[in-house]
Amino acid sequence: MSLRTRLILLTGSWILLILLFFNMFIYNYIFKRTTDAENRMLWNKAQIILRNPLVHRPENWENSRLLWEFIADDTMIRIISPDNAVMAQISTNEQLTEYPAVYRTDYYSEVENSIEARMLFIQVPILENGKQIGQLELGKALNVIGSLMEILGQGLMITSISVMLFSILGGIFYTRIIIRPLRQMLETMRMIRSKGDFLMLGPKYTSRKDEIGRLGQTFNDMISHLQEHDRKQKQFVADASHELRTPLTVIESYTSMLKRWGGNDPAIRREALDAVQSETRRLKNLIESLLKLAEFEREEQVKLDETALVPLVQETKEQLEQAFNREIRFTASEVSKHRRLLADAKKIKQLLIIILDNAIKYSREPIDVTLADVSGFAELKIADKGVGISQEDLPHLFERFYRVDQTRNRETGGTGLGLAIAKQIIDLHQGTIRFESEVGEGTTVTILLPWKAQTEQ
Ligand SMILES: Nc1ncnc2c1ncn2[C@@H]1O[C@H](COP(=O)(O)OP(=O)(O)OP(=O)(O)O)[C@@H](O)[C@H]1O
Ligand SMILES: [Mg+2]
């Protein structure tokens, strides 16, 4: 069932329900009010009749003129004796006289509903010296009310049907207004899908201030997100294949050279083997980094544990000092020694290696690492006095495969993936990373990582 049919049906049945309820209410209300009025009139009439002292003498009951002056259209007046006998009766409506005469000792009122007519009866005791000697009964055929109610019923029916018709027509009209932009949007989306292009919805949908406008904006946001994702993906595949091809080309050319004539010349053989070895190492590193990046993208949830940063930096520093035979100076503030991170220790160590490895690769002098506590954050600064990075290059450092100087980096063997991985680790821990650098002077990397809240420690 389409949204439109559902809307029309829903509002239609709701209106029908309301109409039914109100019609019933109006009908019953009017009926009750008019019957009550008739009832009151009968009681008044009974009072007037009883005021006549002749009525209180049973010997007068036979006199037909006794009650005659009180009769009106569609009315019956009779007196019933204690033995259920009708002692006097006058009527202007035959049906009323068919109502069985029952002697009652109290005040009584009843609406009699039959298929042909609706009748109202009241009974009042006739008292003489405080003793009941008979019963006065007044009846009234509610013909006028009945036909009035019939007219009312018909009127209500006609108005209800018209209201229903108009509401359905209105429903068809207003749902069209509501649904039309949705349909058009759907059409555009279908077109986008069939063409496979990243088409956006026009301002007709997105500039509206309602839910449809928001839907349009969200759709466009999603498309541009997908587009960006697609662009990055394509860029990544292009970069990755380029990066993989370069070492493979080197390896291929050296091996074919060896095969052709280099095998006999020890110098050439050595050079070729060296090149093949270093390119293979490069390839291996590259593939490892690529796998790591892919792993980060797959992993949605990280396991965060309480981690002391000082020993982690200390340990990494010592390992790198040994491996590269370089000096790294580490100082930590007192506060930072006592506080903990909520972090994945292995990933933080990897982050430290990436940054320190760069500092080692791109400088010659000792490297300074400081750890301090800055308003709830661990502030780690890694400063080198190396080649530095120009202002134009700074914004691109975290892009995959981005290397400042391709030739310089070829010698240092970088893949340009280190900082892309570092950024992912930082994001995973809700931290920030900042580079400050001056070409020829050196680079300072500032990392901020939130400490675990102290109350939890
Ligand atoms: N401390 C630094 N001093 C100077 N240049 C740096 C420094 N850190 C990073 N860079 C520049 O940023 C580029 C990107 O760094 P990144 O670590 O991502 O790649 P890489 O070091 O070339 O390769 P790898 O993936 O092996 O780390 C580097 O190629 C280098 O040019
Ligand atoms: Mg690096």
Automatic annotation (TrEMBL):
<dbReference type="InterPro" id="IPR005467">
    <property type="entry name" value="His_kinase_dom"/>
</dbReference>
<feature type="domain" description="HAMP">
    <location>
        <begin position="176"/>
        <end position="231"/>
    </location>
</feature>
<protein>
    <recommendedName>
        <fullName>histidine kinase</fullName>
        <ecNumber>2.7.13.3</ecNumber>
    </recommendedName>
</protein>
<dbReference type="Pfam" id="PF00512">
    <property type="entry name" value="HisKA"/>
</dbReference>
<keyword id="KW-0812">Transmembrane</keyword>
<dbReference type="GO" id="GO:0016740">
    <property type="term" value="F:transferase activity"/>
</dbReference>
<feature type="transmembrane region" description="Helical">
    <location>
        <begin position="7"/>
        <end position="30"/>
    </location>
</feature>
<keyword id="KW-0902">Two-component regulatory system</keyword>
<keyword id="KW-0472">Membrane</keyword>
<keyword id="KW-0067">ATP-binding</keyword>
<dbReference type="InterPro" id="IPR003660">
    <property type="entry name" value="HAMP_dom"/>
</dbReference>
<dbReference type="InterPro" id="IPR003661">
    <property type="entry name" value="HisK_dim/P_dom"/>
</dbReference>
<dbReference type="InterPro" id="IPR003594">
    <property type="entry name" value="HATPase_dom"/>
</dbReference>
<feature type="domain" description="Histidine kinase">
    <location>
        <begin position="239"/>
        <end position="453"/>
    </location>
</feature>
<feature type="transmembrane region" description="Helical">
    <location>
        <begin position="156"/>
        <end position="179"/>
    </location>
</feature>
<keyword id="KW-1133">Transmembrane helix</keyword>
<dbReference type="Pfam" id="PF02518">
    <property type="entry name" value="HATPase_c"/>
</dbReference>
<keyword id="KW-1003">Cell membrane</keyword>
<dbReference type="InterPro" id="IPR050428">
    <property type="entry name" value="TCS_sensor_his_kinase"/>
</dbReference>
<keyword id="KW-0597">Phosphoprotein</keyword>
<keyword id="KW-0547">Nucleotide-binding</keyword>
<keyword id="KW-0418">Kinase</keyword>
<dbReference type="Pfam" id="PF00672">
    <property type="entry name" value="HAMP"/>
</dbReference>
<keyword id="KW-0808">Transferase</keyword>
